[in-house]
Amino acid sequence: MVDLFLNRVLIENNWDQDELNTEREIMGILENRIVMLFFASAECEKCLEFVPVLNDFFKRLKDPAYIEYPKLLALIYISLDQSEEKQEKFLKELHKKVLFLAFEDPYRKELQTMFKVKDVPTIVVLRPDGSVLSPNAVRDICRFGCDCFQNWQESAELVERSFMLNEEFDNLNLRSATDPVRRLKYKTEDDKLNRGLFSTTISLCF
């Protein structure tokens, strides 16, 4: 996953718009995390309607005010806006811990092609190894909220070390009763994507 953004500049969506451009900085914020690539545009009405849902989802998984240990999750906005002004306008609606690529970076379009994104909003969910966990999680986020992350976490076999600091487990391989179903669901989506049979066209659940 980290390799996808090495030699690139990611910018934090805070007041200072701090740039992360060293290998150590990129690894520090993306390594061992599930990464959400949010493809959207300020000109898309559905994107604007989805933003409050996404912000609430992300805040409840990353904000210490809601959760003791922020989840191993990163959200990167891949702008498909037609101008930098529109990108900046859209960023003002997004959570301050969102990362984004500069408008002039052509890598935005490369990622759109790489993940076969044809419609927006689209959220491509990636495992820490960079493989696709979900080609578009918009509908799942709308329907299931934060429960999505548990599904992704178990499917990606991601271990949150912070959660385990003060606890001991006899068997670290224990899984929930629904785990086989989750793993089959996301494995099937991976297979479909690899065969080119999965369409990224998806409608919002509003």
From TrEMBL:
<dbReference type="GO" id="GO:0005739">
    <property type="term" value="C:mitochondrion"/>
</dbReference>
<dbReference type="GO" id="GO:0045494">
    <property type="term" value="P:photoreceptor cell maintenance"/>
</dbReference>
<dbReference type="InterPro" id="IPR012336">
    <property type="entry name" value="Thioredoxin-like_fold"/>
</dbReference>
<dbReference type="InterPro" id="IPR036249">
    <property type="entry name" value="Thioredoxin-like_sf"/>
</dbReference>
<dbReference type="InterPro" id="IPR029520">
    <property type="entry name" value="RdCVF"/>
</dbReference>
<protein>
    <submittedName>
        <fullName>Nucleoredoxin like 1</fullName>
    </submittedName>
</protein>
<feature type="domain" description="Thioredoxin-like fold">
    <location>
        <begin position="32"/>
        <end position="132"/>
    </location>
</feature>
<dbReference type="Pfam" id="PF13905">
    <property type="entry name" value="Thioredoxin_8"/>
</dbReference>
